[in-house]
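In the current project phase, the collection of sequences with tokenised folds has grown. One resulting record follows, to show the layout:
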Amino acid sequence: MFSGSQEYSPLPSSPSSSRDSSSSSFSSSSSSSSSSLAAPRRSPRALQRHGSLLSQYSALLESYTEGEIRQLISALVERYRQAMNSGGHELPLFPRAGSRRKRARARHKPCELRELEVSVSELGLGYESDETVLFRYCSGTCEAAVRSYDLSLKSMRSRRRIRKEKVRARPCCRPLAYDDDVSFLDAYNRYYTVNELSAKECGCV
């Protein structure tokens, strides 16, 4: 009944097969997306505030390549070398060392006269007055004034040859002379004069 040749197109895929293929492709894409979402990502540095300092530095170093770490170390070494060649004593790698040296220099200042403006009530002599006076005092160390007496006395104390007596085995920064007498009125309009209140000259005794 049919004449000639007729071409037959391939049958279309069944809905179940297309559904299976789409579900397989969806599952593969979802698995790939889930795998990409599950991939570990480095959190921002701001989120690591509550972590330990060691973990923060570890995360920071992990973000650098080996070449960048070498470049960082070279830059720090170069800064250290420049600071030493320029005669600076405060190392940039250790900023706290400079503050310690400043405190050490402050502790080893020589004995000298200083002054401070205070009220009479702050002198601790039992007077109640709002008047202010210039109080001069002695401050500083006396390491350069150590004599053979001080060294021998210190040795006798360390050997327990001197036990009960209260002795000072080093010179002390004290007034050698005192300023003029100081007069003032207290809170009840009573007149007072205090002698040997402020230092006039300081020395190691």
